[in-house]
From TrEMBL:
UniProt-recorded name of the protein: beta-glucosidase
Hydrolase keyword on record: yes
InterPro entries: Cellulose_deg_GH3 (IPR050288), Fn3-like (IPR026891), GH (IPR017853), Glyco_hydro_3_C (IPR002772), Glyco_hydro_3_C_sf (IPR036881), Glyco_hydro_3_N (IPR001764), Glyco_hydro_3_N_sf (IPR036962), Ig-like_fold (IPR013783)
UniProt enzyme class: hydrolase
Any one biological process term the GO annotation gives: cellulose catabolic process
Pathway recorded for this protein: Glycan metabolism; cellulose degradation
Keyword Signal: yes
PANTHER family: BETA-GLUCOSIDASE, BETA-GLUCOSIDASE F-RELATED
UniProt lineage: Eukaryota, Fungi, Dikarya, Basidiomycota, Agaricomycotina
Species of origin: Serpula lacrymans var. lacrymans (strain S7.9)
Amino acid sequence: MKFSYSSVVTAAIALLPVVSAQVNSSEWNAAYAKAKSTLALLNLSDKVSLATGYCTGNIPTIPAINFTGLCLEDSALGVKDTDYSSAFPAGINVAATFNRTLMRQRGVAMGQEFRGKGVNIQLGPMMNFMRAPASGRAWEGFGGDPYLSGEGAFETITGIQSQGVQAVAKHFIDYEQEHSRMSSSSNVDDRLQHEIYLHPFLRSVQANVAAVMCSYINGTYACENNATLNGLLKYELAFQGCKLNGWFRYDDWTATPSTTSANDGLDMTMPGDIFPGSIVSWFGESLVLAVQLGTVPESRVDDMATRILAGWYLLGQEQGYPPVNFDSKDPLSSVNQHVNVQGDHASLIRTIGAASTVLLKNENNALPLNKPKTIGIIGNDAGPNPLGPNICIAKGCDIGILGMGWGSGTANYPYLITPLDAITNRSSLDGTQVYSSLDDFDLDAAADTASGKDVAFVFITADSGEGSLTVEGNAGDRNNLQAWHSGDALVEKVASVNNNTIVVVNTVGPIVVEAWIDNPNVTGLVWSGLPGEEAGNSLIDILYGAYNPSGRLPYTIGKSIDDYAAQINTSIPIGILEIPYSEGLFIDYRHFDEANITPRYEYGFGLSYTTFSYSDLIVSGSVSGAAPGPSYGFGSSLDPSLHAPVVFVNFTLTNTGNIAGHETPQLYISLPASSQSPPYILKGFDSVFINPGESREVSMELSQYDLSIWNVVTQRWEVPSGTIGVTVGASSRDHRLTGVIG
Ligand code: NOJ
């Protein structure tokens, strides 16, 4: 993507070699040693074939070196286009758990499934930002804050790669809307790039990610952008102590612009054709020719092949890796062995679904349910798609319970538990009568179903996805932040006849709830997001109190779409669409705080069935004002000294209620005003289980990097001089304890 760099960086990048991976971690060193000795056995065509996929997501075998090829498969939430595999909760849901253990476990379980199907490379996690709240694919990622996104990326990659599967950090970089994604220029300044958009990729590299996928064309094509591919990834992030080293990068599908993008740092092209179905490739024979003509040096091809082989060796895929046993394009193919890779993942999926459900309103102790005699269930989102959960191409429809958005970031459901089925089953334990009306537009039936019931649940949705599909008039990005299918009218109708109306929302991101949220008859609001295959079961765990809610919003719910700092740029330009990221550092809660806008529900907010108190804040350690980080240079942003803990934050949490559960404490820092930073910046979180009446001490650490801003003049991380505030609390606005550093 187009990337405005200061002259200092531009000058530094001009000096960069475009080839030769430099490595210094023991894991990557061993992988590179094997890759380099194997390289000696390859001819030019072999080396180029490593970099070119001739069918979607496949690199061919090279028998001479026992290279069994590479299978690359979507998605970030499960193995796509196969059977007997799981549909995990989306990235945005695992982000809402604010729970690193669950993030890691989800990665491990996905890794097991990809490996079981013989997939070498999982095309995820996705870490682009919910910069504009209507952004079509933001649900694949981890929301509106870099720190949470970075932790989601780190834990997911660590989990996936623990199973010997190569993970892909995508999409590098600045890909935050669908509209014109093939022909837009995200214009991002240097400080912003470092402090927000690069951070999850930095954490990915710290997790030893095997691959990075670049994004779509812009002012400078992302896949031939020397400043970002070579300058940021290869140079600035390349080496950090013993943890990280080389990785290879490949472009997003059909995002390769030229053969010479090899010179700009691109290592692999996928799926291999120039446009869908074309018989030639920018790489393949074109790259062989380019080497023969001297426009691409063979040393660069050596570097590409080495990087690709090194990832294969890094994950130990040269030994005993299961062969591919499914055909994602042909369900009738004899290749399909229908291997069941689900293991016991349903239980983890159910837990993550519950842990990611955010309880936003709970008046009169409406929840948890206490043996109601009658329940009314209203809304299409409570039931099934009558034609089955996988009937719509790439999940591009909003019929029945919404467990994921649409596009390449999806997977087949092995089954999909609906809220209606789950509530009906659970109700039988209490002898509850359940009534339902699933037509979103039949308001009379909705009122009949809700009227006279002890509790009425209204299910509403909002969907989005990849711009390759348009669903109900939404071309990837959402057209607005309203509930789909006149959801507001449905809620208002139900609330007009039932004074214990509880709204359940399955959505890809924020929706505006102002039409009914202050209605006293709306006693509850349960934000269930995109919970995957166990949707109904996860929900009843919350509704009946089997799981005490601990999910927190990974984005702000504003009162109006206009309250957000950034919107989808929907202009139709002649040529390239310019997308200035002019809100700068002030996305999501950072903007609401800076502009003093009261949100409906702030970032990090969520209720529990119990209460927690915070006490005894101790901030120890220090970092000197204006402390400069390492000078700009190779691997400087990953220098271990920058990331070592220097400040320690301890405090005590006490469960002051009667129910055991997790509290989700969050740490925000406030940098000196002179740094022109947002008022509060998330830099720590935890998910802590506490029994009633008990206390737990919580520790969080801050590094110099955590306390720094990117100095665009000196090109290094620097702690701004002045007092740095520390706030610990239950959300981005619920500040319980405050202190200062130093
Ligand atoms: C393009 C999408 O942007 C990317 O996320 C996906 O992994 C590839 N296509 C392969 O489907």
